[in-house]
Amino acid sequence: MAKSNINKGKGKNADEIFNAFQTLRNEQRQLANKITELEMDLNEHKIVIETLQGVDKSRKCFRMAGGVLIEKTVGDVLPVLEYNRERLPQAIEALNEQLARKGKEINEYIETHDIRVHRGHRAPETAPEQATKSNVLVASE
């Protein structure tokens, strides 16, 4: 993981700290996007399975696999869709755990490097505690 590389340097300058922080946030966003994508896939699987359960098993249907449209029968496609529907919640749960760990990693990084996250154009709510600490101000998008 990036954690071992990020936490090594205590003598980093503000740009390096900011770039590492942005990398962590981007990784967190990617995980959240993947979770959303898998949840949408799960909903689509449920809808398609409900639709195909009322159809004759020998009826022709088409399935997209790796960007290629494949012609099969409902009897061939339905078990694969049901298997995927059973496995998707496990994948979503694993990604949720990764997302939680990434959030903790970001919080630890913020505490380690004394980062102040500035949202919008408001003034910082807390005054600097010590003049000897090096604070990094990060503007949220």
Give your account of this protein's structure:
- The structure is a single chain.
- Helix 2 packs antiparallel against helix 3.
- Strand 1 and strand 2 form a beta hairpin.
- The protein is α+β, with helices and mostly antiparallel strands and 141 residues long.
- It is built from 3 helices and 4 strands; from the N terminus they run ααββαββ.
- The chain is elongated.
- Strands 1-2 form a two-stranded antiparallel ribbon. Strands 3-4 form a two-stranded parallel sheet.
- It has a single domain, classed as Orthogonal Bundle (Helix Hairpins).
Which key terms come to mind for this protein?
141 residues, alpha+beta, Helix Hairpins, two-stranded antiparallel ribbon, two-stranded parallel ribbon, 4 strands, 61% helix, disordered N terminus, Prefoldin, chaperone, PFD2
Summarize the amount of helix as a percent range.
55-70%
Give the helix tally: 3
Q: What's the shape?
A: elongated
According to CATH, the fold-level topology is: Helix Hairpins
Q: Brief description of this entry?
A:
The protein is α+β, with helices and mostly antiparallel strands.
What is this structure's SSE topology?
Layout: H1 3-8, H2 14-53, E1 60-65, E2 68-73, H3 74-113, E3 115-119, E4 136-140
Parallel strand pairs: 3-4
Antiparallel strand pairs: 1-2
Helix pairs in contact: 2-3
